[in-house]
Amino acid sequence: MSARFPKLIASAALAILGACSGGGGGNYGCGLMSVTGQSLLLEEFRRPGATLAALPGNIPGTLPVRVALGPAYRSVAGRADSGLVVGIEGPLPAKPQVGFGILIVSPAGDVQGVLLYEGNPADGAPRLGTVNAGDRNLPLIGLTIEVKNFEDKSCPIFPDSLRR
What we know:
single chain, alpha/beta, 7 strands, globular
């Protein structure tokens, strides 16, 4: 993941500028937490026991999906022979060119959503399925984390409105 570090820093700077720019005062904490939280989340693959080895039992049919440091989408999810298939509703932006998805599951076993990142999945993380992003099928890996530890509560990573 170190090869992506310069891109991550550039993306972080742009996100901070976007969150903090004009028009009546942005939520600085929200912008800063979005950048740091979604960037630090990748480090959780180094924490023993955080990487998902198998899919949880109860996966909702609708999941929020967010491009890291970018827009959020609604998706339809279901099981197939190859694991979980997550189909994003709507086209993704051209940049960043996403390369994999992370299924986020709470320690209680509740599926929170999927985060999409540039690059390749974490080494050694089991593939849990596929994210269908238009004409691309991205590998899906997973983490067990408390997503609230990586977000500002006023700007959630996975908005509730995308769960319906």
